[in-house]
Amino acid sequence: MQTPISVQDKKSFIKWFLNNYQLKKRESVWILNYLVNHKKILSNVHFVREAKFCPRGIVITSHCSEEVPFRFYKNQLVTTDAEKSFHDIRMNQHEPLYIQLNFKNANQNIYYAAVLVENPFIPDEYFITQKDQELAKQLLDKMIYEYHRNILQEKIDLALDERDRQAFQKLAKELHKLEYRQSYQPNS
């Protein structure tokens, strides 16, 4: 379980963010300043990635990012109207609010990482599908096979160079078994 981020840490981060980045939409600055000044609301704010999956999420973007300037998600509704989202924040102060900030190198920023929490609403399939898992397994199996095959071939070459008939025969059998198993693998 993840340690909760304190209200003071969130407040400090938002102030730092506003001092270091210019936002594409001026209403975004108003919203973040409003949050900084309302401890009760800030206690329900969570910084996440992929806020679009959250029941109530905001995406705020700085000028240094190519992402959309502003999005507010509430259940299945999406709006770019920051005033409507501001109204929703004021009227539903006790509901969790998930915020995604888009800015240059956000995924490498230590200040942002310090306040980020895992998004519990991202579907498992969003990152890795069953097909992706199967393809990754096939690729890994093939790489392991190629590695073992190359090692055996090098040892066979060495046995031939040294005219070691016994080692050659043993290694050739191992290589044959390896190739036989590989040829009967599904999707090989």
Question: Any key phrases for this structure?
Answer:
188 residues, alpha/beta
- Shape, principal axes of CA atoms: elongated
Output the strand order for the largest sheet: 1-5-2-3-4
Given the helix and strand composition, which structural class is it? alpha/beta
Q: Which regions have little confidence, pLDDT < 50, spanning 5+ residues? A: none
Tell me how many strands there are.
5
Approximately what portion of the residues adopt beta-strand conformation? Answer: 5-15%
Overall mean pLDDT stands at: 90
Ends: how far apart? 40 Å
Order of H and E elements: HHHEEEEHEHHHH
Specify the helix fraction band: 40-55%
Radius of gyration: 27 Å
Number of helices: 8
Biggest pleated sheet: 5 strands, mixed
